[in-house]
């Protein structure tokens, strides 16, 4: 049991310059005894309102140096403070505020919310067990208008999809990775590096791009690049929910539409998912 959607803004001041972190936290506990469920005995139950207040107090006292560290702080607090807690799980996601720039100059106290993917993390710990940390990005919308196709796929009497060697590749990416047992990582630096890998693998070189033969191959390329460049990542899950576009037929309007006006196919939409990890992780 626990408390969901604990939302707050943490404001940090350094002289005239302000820094913000707006987050949403879900904190869940499992107690050493299920007596509150089986017997109606609440003597071990930490009220969810208390859980919420603890999260807010930790934000006040410790700040939020990174989402991962804040999730770790939550786990550590419940494990060290309450002997009746057998398991704790903390999920934290961030509102994507970025500092506002005016003519290239960063503003000291103004910010803009930019929907370029939502950062999140998750930490969990069992008593006498290791602290495990996950992190990720979701709702990251990506598009490239060429260098994508889909050919040579299996066909039977139910197949109506034509082969395409030049199409728009568009989708919404969910990506989650595991650091394994928690260590003293620079979580902010690692997250930014992984995000850069995702964008590079999706788009390819800026002057020419890179051909994608399928959504599945693009997902795998993202995972392979992350694993090759970020040794702290042990396993990475990626889900790409696809958006398809159809070219509008304008012949009746007396116009030739050379893939210049397209409409999105709202539903149904495709989805490609893959989990990839280092061999030693799966052997363990």
Automatic annotation (TrEMBL):
One of its GO terms (cellular component) is peroxisome. Transmembrane segments: none annotated. Pathway: Purine metabolism; urate degradation; (S)-allantoin from urate: step 1/3. SUPFAM superfamilies: Tetrahydrobiopterin biosynthesis enzymes-like. Urate binds at residues 48-49, 150, 167, 216, 242. GO terms for molecular function: urate oxidase activity. Keywords: Oxidoreductase, Peroxisome, Purine metabolism. Pfam families: Uricase. Its main location: other. O2 binds at residues 48, 242. The lineage of its organism: Eukaryota, Metazoa, Chordata, Craniata, Vertebrata. The gene is Uox. It catalyses: urate + O2 + H2O = 5-hydroxyisourate + H2O2. 5-hydroxyisourate binds at residues 48-49, 150, 167, 216, 242. This is Uricase. Catalyzes the oxidation of uric acid to 5-hydroxyisourate, which is further processed to form (S)-allantoin. Belongs to the uricase family. InterPro entries: Uricase. It is found in: Peroxisome. Its EC number is 1.7.3.3. One of its GO terms (biological process) is urate catabolic process.
